[in-house]
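wait is this the right file?? whatever heres the structure
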């Protein structure tokens, strides 16, 4: 891989071009095909390596703002084609981008700072996200990207689906729909070798049992959610579709910027008081963005950017209430830090997307939002002592975790 490619994330077009070249070079082993179309008519591509019945499905681009997965997917595909041991009784299948429309709107090929990252930020509203849509929409209203993904799962019946995710700032962690004994050790070893912190108290997995540091297993269906106000439920997402065929899903997260504050297992001295402060700041910051939105009154001119910003703001009152009403699911400094980061992301992302939505119609409102984005991005980076994780390290760590998950999940399934 050239230095230029190591310094930035590949675009969807570059992923397709590289996958097509691999299929041309290894026609007996690799095949590239379309498996559906997005809402805007963009093709969804599946690259397959090997023909064994036992399958691993790797999905990139489920969230447009989490770009490391594309490079990881390509590195894994090349490795699967190159290393026969990886194909011993297993075929590998790669959905190049689950949301090409979203990828077209998120513009951050090589961010230098969190401010740069947020200037091009896009993440769709929950009902428009391919993996999450089944948890908030009835079956007859699912977007075509979701139907394409579940169709691939129905066809392949993978023993393991891996969804490649990321965070702009924090650490690395894994979410499993079933436990994978043996995964925690190689995951932690890889993170340590590449100087990536393990996020031991990830708010995304609040209340989930841990099978090892940073490796979280989905709780039983009857378990109460940590944040009752959030309507999306991982247990109704596409992550669970593989369970119909005896399979499971691993979600592997890797940070763009690392913070060593998210792997501190020490007890927080006053977690309840901290949650109240975080809830107050969340309401205050979101209120600033909401006032700009109300004063601008953009109507429907903002399209998906405006829908996503408004959707994020709608989550805030319930989320803030959850933080002060429910005892912390984890009283460690790591967990409080993870919630702190989460509470910063919601209004920051809303401000970033609203700025883009208004940039062509209300220059004054857009400038006001840009100041907020700059201030909040800098405060976020400073609070968490952000340090950039080289793209090649993001890709290497995520790739190692996928291979380890495939190996140990196969042992579990045998």
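ok assuming it is, sequence goes like this
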């Amino acid at each position: 891989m050239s230095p230029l490619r190591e310094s930035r994330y590949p675009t969807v077009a570059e992923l397709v071009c590289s996958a097509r070249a691999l299929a041309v070079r290894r026609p007996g082993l690799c095949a590239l095909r379309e498996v559906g179309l997005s809402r805007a008519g963009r093709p969804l591509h599946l690259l397959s390596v090997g023909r064994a019945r036992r399958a691993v499905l790797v999905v990139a681009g489920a969230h447009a703002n989490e770009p490391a997965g594309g490079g990881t997917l390509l590195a894994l595909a090349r490795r699967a084609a190159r290393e026969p041991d990886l194909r011993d009784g297993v075929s590998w299948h790669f959905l190049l981008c689950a949301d090409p429309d979203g990828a077209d709107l998120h513009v951050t090929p090589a961010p230098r700072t969190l401010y740069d990252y947020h200037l091009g930020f896009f993440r769709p509203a929950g009902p428009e996200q391919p993996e999450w849509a089944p948890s908030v929409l009835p079956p007859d209203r699912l977007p075509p990207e979701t139907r394409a993904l579940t169709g691939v799962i129905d066809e392949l019946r993978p023993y393991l689906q891996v969804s490649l995710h990321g965070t702009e700032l924090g650490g690395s962690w894994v979410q499993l729909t079933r436990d994978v004994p043996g995964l925690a050790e190689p995951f932690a070893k890889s993170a340590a070798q590449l100087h990536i912190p393990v996020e031991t108290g990830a708010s995304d997995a609040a209340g989930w049992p841990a099978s090892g540091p940073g490796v979280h297993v989905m709780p039983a269906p009857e378990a109460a959610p940590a944040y009752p106000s959030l309507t999306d439920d991982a247990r109704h997402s596409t992550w669970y579709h593989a369970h119909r065929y005896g399979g499971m899903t691993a979600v592997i997260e890797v940070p763009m910027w690392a913070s060593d504050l998210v792997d501190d297992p020490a007890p927080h001295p006053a977690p309840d008081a901290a949650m109240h402060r975080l809830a107050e700041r969340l309401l205050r910051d979101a209120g600033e963005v909401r006032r700009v939105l109300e004063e601008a009154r953009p109507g429907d001119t903002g399209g998906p950017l405006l829908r996503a910003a408004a959707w994020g703001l709608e989550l805030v009152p319930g989320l803030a209430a959850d933080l002060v009403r429910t005892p912390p699911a984890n009283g460690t400094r790591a967990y409080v830090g993870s919630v702190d980061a989460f509470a910063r992301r919601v209004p920051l992302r809303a401000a970033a997307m609203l700025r883009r939505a208004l940039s062509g119609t209300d220059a004054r409102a857009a400038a006001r939002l840009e100041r907020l984005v700059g201030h909040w991005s800098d405060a976020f980076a400073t609070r968490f002592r952000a340090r950039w994780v080289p793209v090649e390290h993001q890709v290497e760590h995520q790739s190692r975790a996928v291979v380890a998950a495939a190996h140990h999940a196969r042992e579990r399934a045998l």
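Residues 359 and 366 are 5 Å apart (CA to CA). so i think its the right one actually
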